[in-house]
Amino acid sequence: MIRILCLHIAENQASYRYRIAQFLPFWKEYDIEMHPCCINGRSYLEKFRLALQSGRYDYVWLQRKPLLPLLTTIIAHHSRLIYDYDDAIYARESYVKVKPKPTQPGSRQSIRRLDTVLRRSSMVFAGSEALAEYAKRFNPEKTFIIPTAYHKIAALDSNSEKKSTVTIGWLGNSINLFFLSMIDDATAAIQARFPSVRFSVMSGKRPEGLKTSWEFVPWSMEDEASWLRSIDIGVMPLEDDAWSRGKCAFKLLQYMAYGKPVVASSVGANLKAVIDGQSGFLASSSSQWELALESLISNPEQRNKMGEKSLNHFLSTYERRQVQEQMANIIHHHYEQSRKKQKA
User: Fold this and answer.
1) Are residues 229 and 335 in the same domain?
2) Which residue in 25, 82, 318, 335 is a FRET match for 108, CA 20 to 30 A apart?
3) Residue 155 has pLDDT above 80, yes or no
4) Domains in the chain, number
5) Domain of 174: which CATH number?
6) Is the pLDDT at 190 greater than 60, yes or no?
């Protein structure tokens, strides 16, 4: 049994839920024993003690939040370090237009800590190709793309053709409402042309300053599944910058898991998540967004076929079992190779 200490971010963050928590009940099936430990809010002394105790484990899995370089060095000396990240910590967030604070992505401090942990890691699990490309600058041999997984799967809605109202949905953190402004001209035009179409947002707050009228549904874990079932088309607009290129297309996976066709910006991991013209559409301009949405709204049969393809693509690539088996195989292979080197 391989023993792993998992140092993770706060439990109320989606990144923790979908890159750590959903796997915890199943690791023993893969002969891996995972011990989770939240590092958010811990003092430097507590983190120092955890670093000194890391030798009790075969691996220390550090999720997303880079530690001080000294702590990273201690862990890498006493154990094997796995670093897992799903955001472009090396880049400024798309919606931040001023110099980032030291603790924010893109700051000198964040980049220095990230670069150190990438150099010191025995393995890096990157959530997208862009993140893997950055990691390979420092760790070219042991960087692996591990997509964010999703575990809730719903049967296809066979009655979608009979619905009188088509619903276009966007789900996400309130800070990412910024991206809806990028497609506002297209969605406003669609809303004017198809007044019966609903636009629904599930988030922490209402979108503001948009021409499009979005119905607001407060996010809750309990209501997320029913909201996902209620929509007919899922959207994921992004800006084509370093921060967005590092994203892991998670919104799309949620829509796909519920058999929904999608429309997404032609950016980063979206290019892999969307089979353009089959499971949905990729768009690079306002006119492309408008044409894609119009096509799906006007053709219920197309929505159903693309929704089915969307679900099948999700099941074959992003479903929890697929991703966890991929990680387990990588860890066991690395562990066996490490033991052989030690014996040599």
Assistant:
1) no
2) 82
3) no
4) 2
5) 3.40.50.2000
6) yes
